[in-house]
Amino acid sequence: MPMPMSNDAYEELDHRLSAFIPAQRRVSDPLRLLTWGTDASFYRLVPRRVVVVDSEDEVRRILQCCTALRIAVTFRAAGTSLSGQALSDSLLVVLGDVAGALPGEIDALFDALASLGGRGVVLAPSSDGGSSALLRAPADAIPACFGPDSAKRHRDAAAGRGVPFRELPLASLALDLDVPEDVEQFLRSRTGGAATRRALRRKRA
Question: Considering its fold, how many domains does the chain have in total?
Fold first, then answer.
């Protein structure tokens, strides 16, 4: 699929997506796009836009928009290979497993990085000892680790390399959806958007 040569297609995409994707789930500013430009590999592709979706209908409508505008789409989700295949220099669509994430707490991650002078590592651990969010600047400041003990490995890596580090226990990021029990816990909570909760209830039924 040919890539657009100007910003016009992406500006039109912004306009179309604004009709059904809230602003807090659309990323277009350069700093935040840069943080999405790496995964566990040594590759880097900085996306032109990032969209976090929370329903099948949103995915369908995004694909319709991108087909009409001839914009390439890459998906990143739990289980997506992280050896370069989840990178994009076009539109990156993120299927978040941290379904209750609040925009203010995402902003807190970037504020914490700024408090470190714009370089270092900010970690938001999950309740099972994993990592719900890891913000690194530069992207290779420490390796990305995965699994239920990844938070400890990120702490140890930052200490071992002498990298400025800050850990934020953020309530909306504490629960990530890895197993069916996580979904039940999420539905018992008061977090997450209405569409997300409806979708999870449909899947559970």
Answer: 2
Give the mean pLDDT of the chain.
Answer: 78
Last residue of a domain, one of 95, 119, 141: 95
- For residue 94, what pLDDT is reported? 53
* 37 vs 177: CA distance, rounded Å: 23
Domain that holds residue 173: 98-205
| 40, 145 Cβ separation under 8 angstroms | no
73 and 46 belong to one structural domain: yes
pLDDT at 115: 92
Q: How many CB atoms lie within 10 A of CB 18?
A: 11
- Asked if residue 60 is part of any domain, the answer here is yes
With a cut of 70, list the residues of the chain below it in pLDDT.
1-6, 38-43, 54, 76-100, 177-178, 190-197, 199, 203-205
Q: 103 with 54, same domain?
A: no
Report the pLDDT value the prediction gives residue 4, as an integer from 0 to 100.
43
pTM score, two decimals? 0.53
d(CA 104, CA 109) in angstroms, rounded, equals 9
Please check whether residue 2 lies inside any domain of the structure.
no
Say if residues 9 and 70 touch (Cβ distance below 8 Å).
yes
